[in-house]
Amino acid sequence: MLITDSLLLDYKRCSRRAFLNMYGDPTQQDPERDFLQKLRQENKRHTALVLNTFYPHYQQSHVSGLSWREKAEATEKLMQQGVDCIYKGILMVDDTSQSNYCSEESLSIFPLGYEYLGKPHLLIKQPGESKFGNWSYYPVSIHLGRKAKPEYKLLGTFYAQLLAIIQQTTPPTPELIVRPLKHSSVDIIQWLPKLQLVLDECVTMLGAVQEPEVFISRQRCNLCRWHGYCYKIAQSQQHLSLVPGVTPSRYQSLQEIGVHTTESLAKTNLNTIEEQIGKNLAEKLQQQARSLVHNRPIHHPQSQYNPSDALSNQTVELYFDIEAEPERNLDYLLGVVVVNRLNQTQTFYPLLAETPQEEGIIWQQFLELVNRYDQAPIFHFSDYEKDTIQRLGNLYQTPDSQIKPLLSRLVDLHHCVTTSVIFPVENYSLKSLANWLGFHWRDAGISGDQCVCWYDQWLTTGDRNCLASILRYNEDDCLATLHLKNWLAEFFSKIEF
User: Fold this and answer.
1) How many helices (H) does the chain have, and how many strands (E)?
2) 167 three-class SS
3) Going along 155-240, which residue ranges are E strands?
4) What does the alpha-carbon distance between residue 160 and residue 179 come to, in Å, rounded to a whole number?
5) Radius of gyration of the chain from Cα atoms?
6) Where are the beta strands (DSSP E) in 59-198?
């Protein structure tokens, strides 16, 4: 069996994904999302920037069409020649190469009976003794993230251990490069034991051919192509991971007291749950489970927040939603729906930057629009709109005398919901809430990350259909916010505070 760096990365993030990538039926996978392709393109650009900035004289280790073993042999030949910088090197170790290196420490890291393969971005020559002569190599990994994450350090340690066996040296110090061109080193002494633990667990799981239990994580599962497959299983099991607020550690605590499903969480004696996870959390999770089981919203019993005044109908109301391109630190669409309840009209204003240079223009257009209705509340969903107003105000030197009154008009419906209402939903996104309330986007199955891809396609191809799709999605976001606000206003009008 071949244990690769990609497999270990999958295992570190989700053991189930590693298992399914090895044994699963590929026809059960979801279609790949455009956003994944975009991330790959960004990664290529970042890698090219690193190479051009720090390592312009690299030598690529192999050509396409070779087997993994042939690529590993080509890499080792370059190491024997003493090439200063090797790009796309392949490191491969099996039982034979382990036994040729007599370090007991190294032999204890990799379980025997497997082949191991790593693909560091770069191998850099440095002074030091190895089987090649008075030089050796250390690995450099290039990552798109902005922090040296634990999984990056684990892979760097994996590459260092492979190099130690191949060049018959002690493990060299791996280096990581993250955005923006930030270098860091990995503490081998700290990470070798962690690598050994992950390797042992991974090969044990794969060797047993035992499919790990499903657990739906709202962040990590989002882009995984096995998400739909796992989600169906979780739904059929009434899995606790579908209850908002149930983290892996809380899930384990609930398992220990015999709570295995959403229904059992709803019915279990509250005192039993309190003893395990604490009173406030127990009440919150049980109410969430009951809301899901009975498919009805519940006024949060611990809430002291009364949003009735903020939600009362005004003659004119604004509903605000933003589309952004994080890679460019760009807010390219400031969408506003103006609702006039007296005239019973809804007017959508899509303030769109067709080029990144037009962001300042649409910011001024936004200020003109909202100041035209200077008494109207501005409803939005999440902190992003508030943070963006502050960012754009600072960036384009808008006086505080304009920004402060604007911020005072904002009404965050996400805060209103999460502090006051328990909904029968699996997450508290605008899409989940609005869908449960009966609102549906015109383009089904589309999310905000697809808009990021559409905007990039527009900048690349000039296809105005991409812009039309973005505007339609953004208008629906604004209208969904309106739909949610109307429901909340009616809901709280029936509650006595």
Assistant:
1) 21, 16
2) helix
3) 175-178, 182-185
4) 22
5) 27
6) 59-60, 85-87, 91-93, 115-118, 122-130, 133-142, 175-178, 182-185
DSSP string, 255-271: HHTT--BHHHHHHS-HH
A 10 A CB-CB count for 34 gives: 15
Q: How many CB atoms lie within 10 A of CB 168?
A: 18
In degrees and rounded to multiples of 5, residue 222 shows phi and psi of -55, -45
Q: What are the E-state strand segments in 16-164?
A: 59-60, 85-87, 91-93, 115-118, 122-130, 133-142
Structure tokens at 219: 């962040």
Distance CA 463, CA 473 (A): 17
Q: Residue 486: how many CB atoms within 10 A of its CB?
A: 15
Distance from C-alpha of 118 to C-alpha of 103, rounded to nearest angstrom: 20
Residues 6+ apart with CB under 8 A from 165: 93, 97, 98, 101, 106, 110
- Evaluate whether 94 touches 116 at the Cβ level (below 8 Å): yes
Residue 393: CB atoms within 10 A of its CB come to 19
Which residues are paired to 347 by β-bridges? Answer: 338
What are the 10-residue block averages of pLDDT along the chain, 497 residues in total?
95 94 95 91 94 94 87 96 96 80 58 94 96 97 94 97 94 96 96 95 91 88 93 96 95 96 96 94 95 94 76 95 94 98 96 98 98 97 97 97 96 95 96 97 90 95 97 98 96 82
Where does residue 119 rank: exposed (0-12), middle (13-18), buried (19+ CB within 10 A)? buried
Residue in the structure block whose two tokens are 């420490």: 105
Catalogue the E-assigned strands of 143-280: 175-178, 182-185
Amino acid at 105: E
Strands 91-93, 115-118: pairing kind = antiparallel
Separation CA 107–CA 454 (nearest Å): 50
Neighbours of 421 (CB within 10 A): 21
